[in-house]
Design goal:
Blueprint (H helix, E strand, L loop, with lengths): L6 E2 L4 H6 L4 E2 L3 E6 L5 H14 L4 E5 L4 H10 L8 E4 L3 H5 L15 H15 L3 E5 L1 H8 L2 H15 L5 E6 L7 H9 L2 E8 L7 E9 L8 E7 L2 E4 L22 H5 L10 E6 L5 H14 L3 E6 L4 H10 L4 H6 L3 E5 L7 H13 L3 E7 L1 H7 L6 H14 L3 E7 L19 E10 L2 E11 L9 E6 L2 E7 L3 E2 L7 E2 L15
Parallel strand pairs: 3-7, 3-8, 4-5, 4-6, 6-7, 12-16, 12-17, 13-14, 13-15, 15-16
Antiparallel strand pairs: 1-2, 8-9, 9-10, 10-11, 17-18, 18-19, 19-20, 21-22
Length: 499
C-alpha cells in the first residue's frame, strides 16, 4: 500500500488553512488566474516559505525579467536573493552558451530547446520547490495544442521521482480549449485566482481550489486581498468547524427594566435583532450592552458601517455612556467599515480574529443596511451572515444586529430579512400621545426563553436609557401606526424615572 505524501506548508496562512495544512510533496500543481489576480505574489510566498525552511527554491520565468520580478518582491518588502531565479534571457550566462549571443529570447527558441534549458537548470540547482512562470509562453512556442500537451507531460515526467514540488503558473490568456482541461487532469491540484471588477469600489478577488488529490480541502470560493506583505486569504467561514460548549448565561445591560423585557437579558451565544425606524434608539440599546460588558471587564467590538466613530462616541457621551474610557483601556474596539472596500469574507475574518484572538464577548453590527450597502454586488449575503451568526453563537458571543427600517411613520419594511436568523427580536416604534412624539419598545420573540409581551415606553436622555411601565391602552403598534389612548399618568417625563 502506497504511503500518503507528507504535506508542506504553502507559505500563506489563509491558504494553508484551506489546504488543511499544505500541499502533498513532490507533486505538480497548477496556479491559474487572469493577469492582476495575484499569481506572482502567491508564487513568491511559496518559494519564500521554502527558503525559510532551509530548502533550495527556483523561480523559472519565461515572461518577466529578473528585474521585474525583483520590483514585485520589493513592493512587499521581500528580496529575490532568498531563492534562485532563472530567466531565459540569462540562459547563455548560466549554461555557458557562446558569448556571441548575449540575449536569448523565449519566442526565438524551439520549445524542445527551452525545456532542455529548464531541465538543465533544475539539475544544477536541485531545488525542493520550483515555480514555472508561465505556461502561456510554452503555448506560443508550441503553436500546436498536441505538441504543447506532450511537452507539459514530458515536464511532469522529468520531475517525477525528484524530491521537488512544482507550481505551474498559467495566466489564462489563451482561449479555453481542450488543452486547459488536459492540463487540469495532468496536475495533482489546481488553484484558481479570480479578479472581479465591480461597478463601484475596489476590485474583488477570490480563490478556489478546483481539485487536490488526496486532501480534504475547504471547497468553495474564498475572498482575498493583495496588500504589502502578500496575499491575505480569508478562508470561507464554516460555523460547524468551530463548535464549543455554550455558556448560556444572561448578560445584564445595567438597566433592569430593559433586561426584564428579555427575561433577564440576552443569553451568551445568542443574537439579538434591534429593529425600528431611524432615531428610535436602536444603536443606543446595543451600546448599553457593550458598555455594560466593558464595565464587567469583558471585551466588546462595534463594527460601524453607518456612523463616524467620533460622532458615535460623542452621541453616547450625551446619553451618559462614556465609551472613550473603555476604548482607551483596550476593552472596547470600534472599527469603521468603509463602504465598497470590504468583501464578506474579509469582514467574517475580521470578526473571527476579534473573537478567537482578542476574546471579544459582545459584538455589535451597526447596521445591516450598511452591511448590504458596503457589498452591493455580492451574492448570498444573508446566507453568509447566517453562517457568521452561527459561528458567533457557538463561540458564546452575544451579538447585537441593528436593522433600520425604511420610513419614519406608517407601514415600514426592511431591506434584509434576517429576523428568522436572530434569536431575539426587539421592536422600537414612534407613537403619538398627549401632543408629543414618543417611543415604544417591545420584544417580538426570544428563542432563548421567556420574554415580556407588553409594550412599554422607551426613552433615551441625559440620564441614559429609561423603560417605563406597560402601556395597556395601546392600539395599532403592529400596523406601523401605533396610537396611545390611555391616561397620561404612565407616560414618562423628564422629572420621572420609569418604574
Amino acid at each position: 500500500m502506497t504511503e500518503p505524501a507528507s504535506l508542506i506548508p504553502f507559505g500563506n496562512e489563509g491558504l494553508d488553512e484551506i489546504l488543511r495544512g499544505g500541499l502533498p510533496t513532490n507533486r505538480l500543481y497548477l496556479l491559474e488566474g487572469a493577469p492582476g489576480s495575484g499569481k506572482t505574489t502567491l508564487s513568491l510566498q511559496f518559494l519564500r516559505e521554502g527558503a525559510r525552511r532551509g530548502e533550495r527554491a527556483l523561480y523559472v520565468t519565461l515572461s518577466e525579467t529578473k528585474e521585474e520580478l525583483a520590483i514585485v518582491a520589493a513592493s512587499h518588502g521581500w528580496s529575490i536573493d532568498e531563492f534562485d531565479v532563472f530567466e531565459l534571457s540569462m540562459a547563455d550566462e548560466v549554461l555557458g552558451v557562446g558569448r556571441e549571443q548575449s540575449i536569448l529570447y523565449s519566442w526565438e527558441m524551439e520549445l524542445g530547446e527551452t525545456i532542455k534549458l529548464i531541465e538543465a537548470e533544475v539539475e544544477r540547482v536541485k531545488p525542493r520547490r520550483v515555480v514555472f512562470d508561465s505556461l502561456s509562453e510554452m503555448r506560443l512556442l508550441a503553436q500546436d495544442p498536441l505538441r504543447y500537451r506532450r511537452q507539459v507531460l514530458a515536464l511532469k515526467q522529468f520531475f517525477a521521482g525528484r524530491d521537488t514540488t512544482v507550481l505551474l503558473v498559467d495566466d489564462l490568456t489563451a482561449s479555453r480549449d481542450g488543452g486547459d482541461g488536459h492540463l487540469h487532469s495532468l496536475c495533482h491540484g489546481v488553484i484558481t485566482l479570480e479578479r472581479l471588477t465591480l461597478e463601484f469600489g475596489a476590485a474583488r478577488r477570490r480563490l478556489q481550489i478546483q481539485k487536490l488529490r488526496g486532501v480534504d480541502f475547504v471547497a468553495g470560493f474564498h475572498d482575498f486581498t493583495i496588500r504589502k506583505g502578500g496575499l491575505d486569504i480569508y478562508p470561507r467561514l464554516i460555523a460547524s468547524a468551530h463548535q464549543r460548549a455554550l455558556v448560556g448565561e444572561a448578560i445584564p445591560s445595567g438597566v433592569p427594566e430593559l433586561d426584564a423585557l428579555l427575561g433577564g437579558g440576552p443569553l451568551r451565544g445568542t443574537s439579538t435583532l434591534i429593529t425600528g425606524p431611524a432615531g428610535t434608539g436602536k444603536t443606543t440599546i446595543a451600546l448599553q450592552y457593550a458598555y455594560a460588558a466593558c464595565e464587567r471587564g469583558e471585551r466588546a467590538v462595534i463594527y460601524e458601517f453607518d456612523e463616524r466613530i467620533g460622532t458615535l462616541l460623542a452621541r453616547a457621551r450625551s446619553f451618559n455612556l462614556d465609551l472613550q474610557k473603555h476604548v482607551d483601556a483596550g476593552l472596547l474596539i470600534v472599527e469603521q467599515v468603509d463602504p465598497a472596500e470590504l468583501s464578506p469574507g474579509e469582514f467574517a475574518a475580521r470578526v473571527r480574529r476579534r473573537v478567537e484572538g482578542d476574546q471579544a464577548r459582545v459584538i455589535v453590527i451597526d447596521s445591516l443596511n450598511g452591511y448590504l450597502a458596503a457589498m452591493p454586488q455580492e451574492q448570498q449575503l444573508v446566507l453568509q451572515m447566517h453562517e457568521l451568526l452561527s459561528f458567533l453563537n457557538q463561540q458564546a458571543v452575544a451579538t447585537f444586529l441593528i436593522n433600520p427600517q425604511q420610513g419614519l411613520l406608517g407601514t415600514m419594511s426592511s431591506n434584509i430579512n434576517i429576523s428568522y436568523v436572530a434569536d431575539a427580536v426587539m421592536l422600537l416604534r414612534f407613537f403619538e400621545a398627549d401632543g408629543r412624539i414618543r417611543k415604544a419598545i417591545s420584544v417580538l420573540k426570544n428563542r432563548a426563553g421567556a420574554h415580556e409581551d407588553t409594550i412599554r415606553e422607551f426613552r433615551v436622555d441625559a440620564e441614559g436609557i429609561r423603560v417605563g411601565t406597560p402601556l395597556v391602552a395601546f392600539q395599532g403598534v403592529l400596523t406601523g401606526t401605533p396610537e396611545y389612548t390611555g391616561e397620561r399618568l404612565p407616560l414618562m417625563e423628564n422629572r420621572e424615572r420609569g418604574a
